[in-house]
Design a protein that fits this description.
single chain; 449 residues; Lyase, Ornithine Decarboxylase, Chain A, domain 1; TIM Barrel; 18 strands; 22% strand; binds pyridoxal-5'-phosphate
């Protein structure tokens, strides 16, 4: 995150600021997400610096990574575009103020009405398959598109470490496979028949795909663009959308690999991408947001179960679904804090860190060595700015927690602003402060998000 302090110090500072403002409270704000807008500005700067200044580059943030409208609006004000994957995200991108021509609509399941909406609004889109191509051709029969139209191809370079995140395998549900000669010929004919087709798009995969694999997928796509131009005799493809997928390091605070490393690999494998013939679109999501957000939750109870020590916290499957359901693929760090927001420094004790949901697997971590957690302590989950608190899971009717934005004041202080209010639960009694203080230290907390 930002400034000369370390990311851990920054999280501690934000946490103490949140406690001072009551944004975290053991009675009625037991869980919250935080977005660091200073860190986000630094990340977007690093992304823009990594690409050559003299090329036309649209950095379209993958909205699914964090689809909260104020976050999208912040990214817009930092100069980014937005990649969306359906009516929900398109609606939020427009609400966040992105001009339609800086929105890229990708999805393998665009409905006819979504396509009509996107084309009428002047949003750019990437067609996923031949059936969708026919629909779009039909809709464009009378009017040329107002924004570039591309086709998503699958360069078939194979998968990464997480199968569910790998989209360039032979059997992937995404795009038109370039490894299939028949499909390739058919796509060439489509470019010949439809002069409004001007772009190629690929997204090799997300977390778990090495940058080298992504760069080889982009290289295959750029090579196919060259083939289209050769076969059809002239410049037909004027832009390449290279997707996102830069992996994030969840083990510590280092930003590795960085966007500059990604571009180095792209230059090595696909030098023609940087030759000036193509406008470039990127669609990074996780690498833009993950390290610029964290989750904080109170420890409500602790217990011993068999030979396990267990801390029951308020952060579980509702804000960390991936980690809970696939802990091997999505491990998260956990930091322990005292109730006053100072870091706990006690000797590490092996313990399970559990969430509040009613199933045994709702664990943030099993057998994690941490200072012994006690009721009233706070756990912090770094690197959860993408695909975590912004993507709630509604099991048990667990409410969506508040999300707060944080940024520096000119005078060095921290300002907070609401990014999303906590979900209200009708019928939950409003706590009586006098009654609460009588019970302080007991278990008389009103259950609110
Ligand atoms: C998910 C997705 C992205 C973003 O992936 P990240 O790993 O978050 O960078 C970009 N493009 C498409 C088409 C996607 O499906």
């Amino acid at each position: 995150m930002a400034g000369t302090t370390t990311p851990t110090e920054r999280r501690g500072r934000v946490l103490r600021e949140a406690l001072a403002r009551g944004l975290l409270h053991p009675r009625d704000a037991v869980l919250a997400g935080f977005v660091d807008f200073d860190g986000l500005a630094d990340t977007v700067r690093a992304l823009r610096r990594a690409f050559p200044e003299d090329l036309e580059v649209l950095h379209a943030f993958a909205a699914k990574a964090n689809c909260l409208v104020p976050v999208l609006a912040e990214l817009r004000s930092l100069g980014m575009g937005c990649e969306v994957a359906g009516a929900g995200e398109l609606s939020r991108a427009l609400e966040a103020g992105f001009p339609p021509e800086r929105i890229v609509f990708d999805s393998p399941a665009k409905t006819l009405s979504e396509l009509r909406w996107a084309l009428e609004a002047g949003v750019s889109l990437n067609i996923d398959n031949f059936q969708e191509l026919e629909r779009v051709a039909d809709l464009l029969r009378d009017d040329p598109p107002r924004a570039p139209i591309g086709v998503r191809v699958n360069p078939g370079v194979g998968g990464g470490a997480i199968e569910a995140m790998s989209t360039a395998t032979e059997t992937s549900k995404f795009g038109i496979p370039l490894t299939d000669e028949v499909a390739r010929e058919r796509l060439l004919r489509a470019f010949r028949d439809h002069p409004w087709l001007t772009r190629l798009h690929t997204h090799v995969g997300s977390q778990g795909c090495p940058v080298d694999l992504i760069a080889r997928g982009v290289a295959g796509t750029v090579a196919f663009a060259g083939e289209i131009d050769r076969v059809l005799g002239g410049r037909r493809v004027d832009g390449i959308d290279i997707g996102g997928g830069l992996p994030v390091n969840f083990a510590d605070d280092r930003v590795v690999p960085g966007f500059d490393t990604h571009v180095e690999h792209l230059r090595r494998h696909a030098p023609a991408l940087f030759g000036g013939d193509y406008a470039i679109t990127t669609e990074f999501g996780r690498s833009v947001m993950a390290k610029n957000g964290f989750t904080a939750a109170y420890v409500e109870y602790t217990k011993e179960a068999g030979d396990h020590r267990v801390a029951i916290t308020h952060a579980g499957v509702q804000v960390a679904a991936r980690t809970v359901f696939a802990p091997g693929a999505w491990p998260l760090r956990i930091e322990a804090y005292h109730p006053d927001g100072t870091p706990k420094r006690g000797a590490p004790v092996v313990q399970d860190v559990a969430g509040p949901a009613c199933f045994a697997g709702d664990l943030l971590a099993r057998g994690r060595a941490l200072p012994l957690l006690e009721p009233g302590d706070i756990v912090v989950l770094p690197d959860t700015g993408a695909y975590y608190f912004s993507t709630p899971f509604h099991y048990n009717g667990l409410p969506e927690p508040a999300v707060h934005g944080v940024r520096s004041d000119p005078d060095g202080g921290l300002r907070t602003e609401s990014v999303r209010p906590a979900q209200e639960l009708p019928g939950v009694p409003v706590p009586d402060p006098a009654e609460e203080s009588r019970r302080a230290g007991g278990a008389g907390r009103t259950p609110r998000g």
